[in-house]
């Protein structure tokens, strides 16, 4: 099985900050990496698919990059509504594993 | 508008069984793979199982293989998860999710839309 690692598990940032969230796969997954945002008590929401494709309706301050084993989710200017937990997920092969999540907290 | 509504969760004793359902609307159900993803209280997301649009191909996480069975009724736009031999570690909120359809079949599963989840608690 492909292991997905997200570190750190949490980070603190201020409104307006540029935030980068890394994700690493245990083997190459080419571009098959997706990012989800989850707020407390809510279902996850798809943000980015296939490494860098912005899901329709998602603000352009979110972007994704990377290929192979190393990927990054970037929030160019953090907004109050962006404080949440972010998960990466590989869709290269079954089982389609998730990372442990990175919680973005208010500094 | 895509809607996914899960039902069937509840409290069950260890070793017991439960059948979850997900009623889908707003899209051509048989054209998309579907998944179940769970989240234990205070924990992260765990993909559990997936089924192709036709229902022919099914996939399971190792943690549930042999105990859970995914199925779909395309005539009723409904997804099911039959859960047997339940354990305390199966306690979680179970989400139904629709694939984005970016690739053919289930070759690259992307959870595009999610339901609100149904809670399964396994405890004596």
Task: Give structural notes.
The complex is a heterodimer of chains A (107) and B (124). Chain A is built from no helices and ten strands. With 107 residues, chain A is mostly beta strands. Chain A has a six-stranded mixed β-sheet, with no helix packed on it. Chain A has a four-stranded antiparallel β-sheet with strand order 1-3-8-7, with no helix packed on it. The radius of gyration of chain A is 13 Å and the shape is globular. Chain B is an all-beta fold and 124 residues long. Chain B has strands spanning 3-7, 10-12, 18-25, 34-39, 45-51, 58-60, 68-73, 78-83, 92-99, 111-114, 118-122. In chain B, the strands form two sheets. In chain B, strands 2, 4, 5, 6, 9, 10 and 11 form a seven-stranded mixed β-sheet that branches. Chain B has a four-stranded antiparallel β-sheet with strand order 1-3-8-7, with no helix packed on it. In chain B, strand 4 (34-39) and strand 5 (45-51) form a beta hairpin. The radius of gyration of chain B is 14 Å and the shape is globular. The model of chain B has no long low-confidence stretch (mean pLDDT 96). Chains A and B meet through strand 4 and strand 5 of A and strand 5 and strand 10 of B.
Index terms:
heterodimer; A: 107 residues; mainly beta; six-stranded mixed sheet; four-stranded antiparallel sheet; 10 strands; globular; B: 124 residues; seven-stranded mixed sheet; 11 strands; 0% helix
Beta-strand residue percentage of chain B: over 45%
Please give the largest β-sheet of chain A: 6 strands, mixed
Biggest interface, chains and residues, is: A-B, 24 and 26 residues
The number of helical runs of chain A is: 0
Instruction: Report the principal-axis shape of chain B.
Output: globular
Q: What is this entry, summarized?
A:
The complex is a heterodimer of chains A (107) and B (124). Chain A has 107 residues and is mainly β.
């Amino acid at each position: 099985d492909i292991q997905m690692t997200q570190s750190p598990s949490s980070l603190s940032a201020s409104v307006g900050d540029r935030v980068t969230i890394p994700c690493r796969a245990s083997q190459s997954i080419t571009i098959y990496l997706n990012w989800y945002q989850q707020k407390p008590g809510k279902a996850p929401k798809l943000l980015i698919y296939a490494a860098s494709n912005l899901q329709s309706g998602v603000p352009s301050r979110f972007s994704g990059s990377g290929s192979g084993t190393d990927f990054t989710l970037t929030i160019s200017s953090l907004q109050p509504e962006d404080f949440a937990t972010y998960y990466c997920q590989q869709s290269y092969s079954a089982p389609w594993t998730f990372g442990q999540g990175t919680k973005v907290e208010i500094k | 508008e895509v809607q996914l509504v899960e039902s069937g969760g509840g409290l069950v004793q260890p070793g017991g069984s439960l059948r979850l359902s997900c009623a889908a609307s707003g899209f051509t159900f048989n054209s998309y793979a579907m998944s179940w993803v769970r989240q234990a209280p205070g924990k992260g997301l765990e993909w559990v199982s997936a089924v192709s649009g036709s229902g022919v191909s099914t996939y399971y996480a190792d943690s549930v293989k042999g105990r859970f069975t995914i199925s779909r009724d395309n005539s009723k736009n409904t997804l099911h998860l039959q859960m047997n031999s339940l354990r305390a570690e199966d306690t979680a909120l179970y989400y139904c999710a629709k694939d984005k359809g970016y690739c053919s079949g289930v070759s690259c599963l992307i959870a595009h839309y999610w339901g609100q989840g149904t809670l399964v608690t396994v405890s004596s």
